[in-house]
């Protein structure tokens, strides 16, 4: 590998940084990352990066805001040290879930052609019945990275692909799909033995496109779980049969009630279900989908996740639900986020868990970008 290639790693996922450097056959550039007593971050790059092609690796997990600030300072440190180019590698892109609601720079709602407000542009209500605007941070995050000095961004399975549009620099959104497909095809025995009775399931409408691509590639059927959030009437309105939806929408958020209903689109009866999702945080959506699939008599459920965040007590919640109802046969994760602790917790809780390594595809992307080669083949199966 060329001596002009430099890899600088943050503290969020040191194991992945080490694995990528091993694949590239280079040593990680040493740096000193410290914190002052008041929590401020101090960083020093301890080797020369002058005129080098620098790749800064930091996943958006753990203490998200601290790690993101650390990433910005790492980028700025390399830029000030006169490096040639900075490519930021963010396996899990934090804040990517906050780009899905249309908004204008003035802070008001985006309007449709007929002048009506886009649905869900605002969430919740204040005491006066006014909807509260929720800030969207896609442009802010993009501007922070570019202002710090990033020239290129590599990430994997963006939760919202439109996030790429907030940048005015190249953004390569790599797919974990080749890795997941190969695992399903070669490692899941039930898939190999009983292909006709296998179905790919998306736990919500947002992941339908991703799941259908995998289903089409593997040649199996597809099913989707549709989730709908409705306003539940008050007890007085139910008893008086005077339910007025617009009136309910004007109620104070502390008194309004919501009910979430789910329905399955597709046939899973007596079939092996492989549920595909890009991101699991609290685990509620995954468990709700798993329970529905079991109610619909699915034979076996295998859950495949790219970014397993599992915030708070999510792991305990999933383990307890699985002990009570035997929902999940196998759980497949990738290491875009550190998974050693989660792996041990799931295994101890009786869930067969497997972690897939993404360092191969990330290191290959780094190598090709450094050498000016095309990375289009990384989006397809069989490149490795």
From TrEMBL:
A GO CC term attached to the entry: cytoplasm
Reactions catalysed according to its record: D-ribose 5-phosphate + ATP = 5-phospho-alpha-D-ribose 1-diphosphate + AMP + H(+)
Keyword ATP-binding on entry: yes
Pathway(s) where this gene product acts: Metabolic intermediate biosynthesis; 5-phospho-alpha-D-ribose 1-diphosphate biosynthesis; 5-phospho-alpha-D-ribose 1-diphosphate from D-ribose 5-phosphate (route I): step 1/1
InterPro entries per UniProt: PRib_PP_synth_CS, Pribosyltran_N, PRTase-like, PRTase_dom, Rib-P_diPkinase
Main enzyme class: transferase
GO biological process: 5-phosphoribose 1-diphosphate biosynthetic process; purine nucleotide biosynthetic process; ribonucleoside monophosphate biosynthetic process
Name under which the protein is recorded: ribose-phosphate diphosphokinase
Organism expressing this protein natively: Hanseniaspora uvarum
